[in-house]
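Sequence design from tokenized structure. All designs in this work follow the same two-part layout: the structure record, then the generated sequence. An example of the structure record is given first.
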């Protein structure tokens, strides 16, 4: 734990205690996975530990530089940290100077490469938590920030640019779960950056968005893009899980969870205004309990095939009793949507949970990839391995592959709210959190897995 942090994070409740820990260095521990029972291994695989030794690491994000696909950056917490590769994931190094010096805690990281090939890291920062799950109650100084790397992720600018910040005062909101989206299209708003997030107030939850048109240096005033506010607690009934994707003509498509539905909207004017959001699919509750995990959710993720503007949305819920991952698609810019497709290939109602998914579409060939934790190999529904699902038929079906050859027991630790995945030219990068076999430990590690499916 950072010596500057006033919190004894080991004494805090389940959601955030393991998100906000000082990160350690980065080794290169390479493993070759073997297949899980009944699952083929991912092709040409490599798995690397991004954390030098176990600590309190969670919620990774990963991005590929579209101008130079050899450059890949993975972010994780606690605090905000970045590892980078300049050889398409063969080797990884830790970047320095990433976490903010003027806040005690930073996290909820996401990372993207912008239209200039710069890596842009987004994170929240604060000094002390408010009330557990009711984060706006007793909220302290907090804000959302971005920091840029002009060399692909190796070095980071000393200054971080504020999207929004609050000084400690009665009734201030709590800004949470920011996620960054870059417009790398050839449309009218190419180069724009967008960050969407949940704002917690004492009375409700809201989805806000801010945009930057100057490479992340300055940000617009937050725009509330929901038309229906959610409950003010972070354990169900809230508006949460913002993600976005940009089409060929710069249209920004976004989705989030709203109680028992997934909501979708879009902007055709660079994030200045949005169509009225509407539900596109009914789901079981998006926050749920998974055995041996401190916290779990099925937040939606949206992605797009930039060649055709076909949209994909994935989420997870327990409509089948155990938790499954689902996908639906739209071929008409979100006006109509396909029936839901089950992504995990185990038998329905088999009692095995699949959870903490993330989604990416390869812009080179349109293949869709979903990464998630999978418990089908453990009859007690406790130990999990990481599985990668791939669709080459537009999301109508998915082939499942084993990313790792071993399972892990989460042992009630906090695994975060997210995993991450990115794909380019058949090469796929997945990032996730694991609990190593350490007795009586709450420590975790962050790993990155690389697969190569070739160019088809």
């Amino acid at each position: 734990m950072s010596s500057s942090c006033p919190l004894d994070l080991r004494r805090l409740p389940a959601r955030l205690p393991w998100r906000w820990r000082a990160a350690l260095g980065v080794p290169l521990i390479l493993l070759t996975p073997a297949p899980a029972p009944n699952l083929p291994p991912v092709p040409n695989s490599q798995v690397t530990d991004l954390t030098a030794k176990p600590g309190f690491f969670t919620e990774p994000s990963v991005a590929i530089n579209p101008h130079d696909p050899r450059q890949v950056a993975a972010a994780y917490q606690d605090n905000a940290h970045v590892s980078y590769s300049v050889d398409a994931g063969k080797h990884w190094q830790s970047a320095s100077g990433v976490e903010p010096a003027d806040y005690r805690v930073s996290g909820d990281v996401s990372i993207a490469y912008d239209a200039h090939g710069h890596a842009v890291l987004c994170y929240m920062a604060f000094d002390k938590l408010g009330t557990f799950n009711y984060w706006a109650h007793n909220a302290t100084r907090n804000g959302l920030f971005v920091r840029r790397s002009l060399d692909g992720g190796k070095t980071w600018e000393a200054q971080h640019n504020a999207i929004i910040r609050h000084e400690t005062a009665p009734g201030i909101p709590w800004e949470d779960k920011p996620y960054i989206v870059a417009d790398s299209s050839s449309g009218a708003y190419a180069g724009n950056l967008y960050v969407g997030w949940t704002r917690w107030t004492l009375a409700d939850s809201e989805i806000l968005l801010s945009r930057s048109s100057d490479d992340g240096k300055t940000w617009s005033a937050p725009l509330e893009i929901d038309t229906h506010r959610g409950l003010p607690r972070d354990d169900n009934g809230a508006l949460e899980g913002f993600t976005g994707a940009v089409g060929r003509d710069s249209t920004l498509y976004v989705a989030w969870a709203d109680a028992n539905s997934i909501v979708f909207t879009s902007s055709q004017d660079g994030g200045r205004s949005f169509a009225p959001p509407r539900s596109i699919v009914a789901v079981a509750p998006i926050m749920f309990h998974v055995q041996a995990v401190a916290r779990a959710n099925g937040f939606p993720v949206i992605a797009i095939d930039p060649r055709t503007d076909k949209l994909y949305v994935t989420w997870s819920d327990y409509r089948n009793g155990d938790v499954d991952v689902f996908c639906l698609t739209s071929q008409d810019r979100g006006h109509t949507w396909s029936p839901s497709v089950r992504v995990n290939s185990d038998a329905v109602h088999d009692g095995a949970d699949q959870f903490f998914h993330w989604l990416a579409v390869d812009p080179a060939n349109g293949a869709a990839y979903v990464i998630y934790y999978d418990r089908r190999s453990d009859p007690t529904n406790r130990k999990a391995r990481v599985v990668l699902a791939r669709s080459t038929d537009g999301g109508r079906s998915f082939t499942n592959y084993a990313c790792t050859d071993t399972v892990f027991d989460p042992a009630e630790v906090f695994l975060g709210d997210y995993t991450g995945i990115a794909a380019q030219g058949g090469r796929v990068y997945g990032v996730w959190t694991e609990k190593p076999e350490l007795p009586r430990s709450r420590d975790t590690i962050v790993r990155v897995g690389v697969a190569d499916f070739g160019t088809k």
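Residues 1-36 have pLDDT under 50 and may be disordered. We note this feature because it recurs in several other targets discussed in the main text.
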